[in-house]
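#structure-requests
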Amino acid sequence: MQDEHLPTWLSRLSVRGGPRFLQIADALQAAVANGSLRPGDRLPAQRQLAAQLDLDLTTITRAYDEARRRHLLEGRGARGTYVAAPKVELTSVLDLGMNTPPPPDGVDFDDLLKQGVSQVLMRADAHLLMTYHLGGGSDSDRKAGARWLEPMFGALDHREVVVCPGAQAAIAALILALTEPGDVILAEPATYPGLLAAAAQFGRRSVAVEADAHGMVPEALEQACRQHQPGLVYLNPTLQNPTAVTIGERRRKELAGVAQRCNARIVEDDPYWLLAEAPPPPIATLAPERVYYISTLSKCLTPGLRVAFVLMREPHERERFLAALRSFALMAAPLTAALATQWIFDGSAGALMEGVRKEARLRHRMARDILAGRYSGAGDGLHAWLELPGYWNSSQLARAAGSEGIAVTPAQAFANGSASVNAIRISLGSIKDRARLQAGLQRLSHLLARRPEPFGAAVV
């Protein structure tokens, strides 16, 4: 039974509310967020609070330690424990613009990283981790890649898997290896900016192919293939970036059929397949001789690994691909590749990905609740595509959001050609703290609900 003289910021603890120390830490965080507790406020001594709550001292110590980990409290020796002044991070831009995995609840990433690196160093020659690797990954790394791709393809020959320093490097190397300057690359009207940047940098021309609510239109692709004789067709078919559309199995078969009839080659960039709810089979399973499949760890685990796997069936094409890759990105860093391999084989990657998946879905539910009718996310993945009311345009909205400390990405950033829909992409993983994400989404919702202010020159 709780003491009736509890601090005002601490409501009655719930038997079904989870661990008591987390309930206390959450109450502290909420009180700091709503202003009930302010920087410099003194907290009850741990023994006093333990007695008031009829809990053991260890529980209160764990609660205060957790609050310190969240940068909410600071100790001042014999003077006691006080609410900490906010760090700069708490007042920084709320980043809804960068597509990164959210930190999974209940996964100690620091411990995971330390244990993984420790295991790598125990089992590998340190010299080999610090020297050049020229073959698209070690044998172990390729086997790990084959294991990573098993949910999509079943058992694979690991020799068909190439290890790359990220999906962007893989896309660039495929363009260099398989196309010539001046060639056309077909993609959807709103597509991944990295594809557009690489195509432009290498002197290739990106051309938009009509897409509808279900993805690229097969009839439009066939017409574009016959008109342009493209070097490549680029598709991001699962939780597409930026629209979050997943192409259904029937349409995937139709697109694969177009590629076969028109002798077109498809780059299937599929970073979100493992995060999606019951995704269709990859296009690469339907036309394996015509599709180059990319799966990166950056969206399911962490961008810091800089590891992606490319499935390429033909040996001579793998050699051309590796030669192109070596011209600008010699290899994936052996240490991070070895860490990825360790995590894949010991199950850590699967556990981390499951945590990311659960956290992402929770955040999508939050976004759906706050943004109501404006939300158009798929309920999984890392982002949602918001079509804007007519009184806003996407660049104007992005500027207005930036002035209020919120970063979003306007549709123009994804435009393949001159046409652009009036929308923004919001990413739900970059903001580490869930309460700050909620605050950012609420501020964005309020901004969307009001009309833009008329422009006026500053007077000084």
